[in-house]
Amino acid sequence: QVHLQESGPGLVKPSQTLSLTCNVSGGSINNGAYYWSWIRQRPGKGLEWIGYINYSGITYDNPLVKSRATMSIATSKNQFSLTLTSVTAADTAVYYCARLTWNSHVFDFWGQGALVTVSS
Amino acid sequence: QSGLTQPASVSGSPGQSITISCTGSRSDLGAYDFVSWYQHHPGKAPKVLISDVSNRPSGVSDRFSGSKSGNTASLTISGLQTEDEAVYYCSSYSSSATLDVLFGGGTKLTVL
User: Fold this and answer.
1) Can you tell me whether residue B108 is helix, strand or coil?
2) A102 to chain B, closest Cα gap in Å
3) Rounded to an integer, what distance in angstroms lies between the CA atom of residue A59 and that of residue A57?
């Protein structure tokens, strides 16, 4: 069973950089069948796709955060990461990492989520 | 930001059936069968119920079923149980120039 777990600071100051890492266990991240994804849920809102990255570093992302978001992958550590620069209160959200199976475009495994609050 | 359209809420009594709709466009739901449905209980990880319009992953109850017609997908839950009370999201691949993945706004299911 694949397990994903987000980690990172729960509080970030406005204008600073949000950094999250997702550790994957129970399966290799080095597999071309999957894209490793970030999704967030802002307070009172629905799910919002941020982007995903594959084992070779190919990324697709949401234009709403494109200029501020960077995704990276470390296959040797079986983990992938998200950094979001110049954060504002609007970036306060629960951030989920998830595995997307490419040929069905389904998010089949999810982390528990990490609440990140942007506040001074 | 464009997305898929779902009703904000639905309700039903235990044992009844309900259907949640998800409406998109010709560049997403209407063009592809990459439609999935997720159940989200507060404070927990979302769980996939349906992939590829109507496929149930192993371990998902057969009370959950999916279908699609044109630009609209549907999730039907039969034999409602109290533990079905959650928020349900649809998702689709999109060939739009800007987004690969669309989510619906979520439908809150209340089991009365």
Assistant:
1) strand
2) 10
3) 6
In this prediction, residue B1 carries a pLDDT of: 46
Best B37, B56, B101 member to test A by mutation, with max A CBs in 10 Å, is: B101
In the block, residue with structure tokens 């034999």: B79
Distance from CA of B28 to the nearest CA of A (A): 12
Q: Report the alpha-carbon distance of residue A18 to residue A84 in Å, rounded.
A: 5
Cβ(A71)–Cβ(A54) below 8 Å: no
Q: Select from B16, B65, B58 the least CA-distant residue to B37.
A: B65
What's the rounded Cα separation, in Å, for the pair B8 and B19? 13
**CA-to-CA distance for A4 and A22, rounded, in angstroms?**
6
> Rounded to an integer, what distance in angstroms lies between the CA atom of residue A69 and that of residue A32?
22
Average pLDDT, consecutive stretches of 10 residues, N- to C-terminus, chain B (112 residues): 86 97 92 95 94 96 97 97 97 82 95 94
Residue B49: its H or E element: strand B47-50
Tens digits of residue pLDDT in A45-69: 999 999 999 999 888 888 888 789 9
**Whole-angstrom distance between the N-terminal and C-terminal Cα of chain A?**
39
Instruction: Kindly list the residues from chain B whose CB atom is less than 8 angstroms away from the CB atom of residue A110.
Output: 45-47
The tokens describing A5, both together, are 């777990």
- Take residue B28 and report the two structure tokens written for it: 């997403």
Which residue type is seen at A44? G
